[in-house]
Amino acid sequence: MRLTVFALVALLTLTNCAEKNRSFSKADIAIVPQPLSLVLNESSFALQDGQTIFSDLDEQQSAVKDLQNYVTATTKFTLVANADKQSAIVFEKKEGLDPEAYELQVTPKKIIISATGKAGYFYGVQTLKQLLSVEATKESQAITYLIPSVAIEDNPRFKWRAFMLDDARYFHGEAFVKQMLDQMALLKMNTLHWHLIDDAGWRIEIKKYPLLTKVGAFRTDSEIGTWKSGKTSGQPHGGFYTQEQLKDIVAYAAARNINIVPEFEMPGHSSAAIAAYTWLGTAGVKIDVPVKFGRLYDNYDVTKPEVVTFIKDVLTEIFQIFPSEVIHIGGDEVGYEVWQNSKSVQKYMKEHNINTPADLQIDFTNSISKFIEANGRRMMGWNEILGKNIHTDFEEKQGDQEAEKELAKNVIVQFWKGDLELLTDAAKKGYGIVNSLHDRTYLDYSYESIPLEKAYSFDPIPEGLDKQFHKNIYGVGCQMWSEWTPTNADVERQAFPRIAAYAEVGWTTMENKNYDTFKVALKKMQKHWDTLGINYFKDSDKLEAALQAK
Ligand code: ACM
User: Fold this and answer.
1) Which atom, in ligand 1's list, is nearest to the CA of 442?
2) Are 131 and 74 in contact (CB under 8 A)?
3) Domains of the chain, CATH where assigned
4) Dihedral of the CA atoms 265, 268, 272, 278 (nearest 10)?
5) Using CA positions, which residue lies closest to atom 3 of ligand 1?
6) Atom of ligand 1 minimally distant from the CA of 479
7) In this predicted model, what pLDDT tens digit does every residue of 258-316 receive, in sequence order?
8) Cβ(333) to ligand 1 under 6 A?
9) 503 phi and psi, to 5 degrees?
């Protein structure tokens, strides 16, 4: 059973030399991601049953609860809430810190967690959890729970630290998503980019258009193995989240300082929706939810007012489910042939002085961006939305894809493919950028192509980008596309342990990053995953040795 309760012991070091109190060495400290500064002092704090815990603000309560649950699960001790500031563990407001920053002071007598708000307190607790050391004496088997005396000041390098889960190709389900959120939280990742809609499945209940899930969430079979393998599983597949479930997951994430950014792909990758409602498509051809993966033929016909109304209706329900400021609209890999072959689309383009299909996409994207902004949100999309042709490898001739029009300014661009100059240009123009360069951050890629060290050494700020534009690089995303990982165990093998490397990419300064230190800390994290039954990839060391030997 994958209960968090049993997971906790995994973080802990079991030694044979328990003392009531002892000093620790730097080698005993294993925190992922590595904090900004850590001073290790003599002695330690010994955790005991019934110790008091002080907090006086609402914004501290999710961190307090998380710590209490963790301590009880790990030690069976209870931490007792107390109105006295002389308590053993104290949560303290400290003005002037950044929103996710915290300070953690541990002395033999007291633990103080200071922050300026909810996120900081929560992260202070995540670090405290990783510091807890369980020690047993050989003779008596008496166990003590020690926390090394430390003074930590911590603050993330980037504000955007994302994991993307592709729930469209395979439906993973509520329990799995919550497990991922738990692991992200411990790693101080703050964004779940949730790819919920694609050709292969529509996973969000939309009340106004019930066929989206009734039809679009299910397919009769699935291609397996790899692209164009010609093999299928022979099994039907499907599933979706009700709005109630989604709201519950959003709240679960929020309690862990994780914002969920939903992705509603448009105008391509839209087969599941077109299977539900043929009139959404450009080709006017009735289709089933595709069994094969890859870029597919039809797109939303963005020149039809009823299609634009549909998209706005769906977005309106999405706004009600997801409080996220940022709403992702996909925008990648749009095949333009279906628009080029449509008389009515061509007529529309002529009438509106739109010269290329890339411009039609930008025109549409900008109008949806306006709608999103009018609703108090902000659009995000894959970097094709800038209108540059980054696909030289598509089989079909796309014609001239370079757009003349410019993407609306307030949009966040998720850079995944193309010349790095496109990224630096966009950053210079003032776009917010999330760096998800595919050959450095795609978790579906093999460990041979992205070994752990390559994942770890990724820098979201491209070389040569002038310092004044660094602020436009919001951070990093790592993406778990799931075409070829039908089971949750497959997804875990691809995501873990690389997700921990990306967590450190997003959090830790370049000066503090050290792959050897990371690997030592990762060992404890792996024990934690072991107790949870998480199927992480275990052969990183072997693989790296083999790659070096080559
Ligand atoms: C993508 O990998 N198509 C964004």
Assistant:
1) 2
2) no
3) 4-154 (3.30.379.10), 160-203+242-274+298-512+542-549 (3.20.20.80)
4) 130
5) 332
6) 2
7) 999 999 999 999 999 999 999 999 999 999 999 999 877 899 999 999 999 999 999 99
8) yes
9) -60, -40
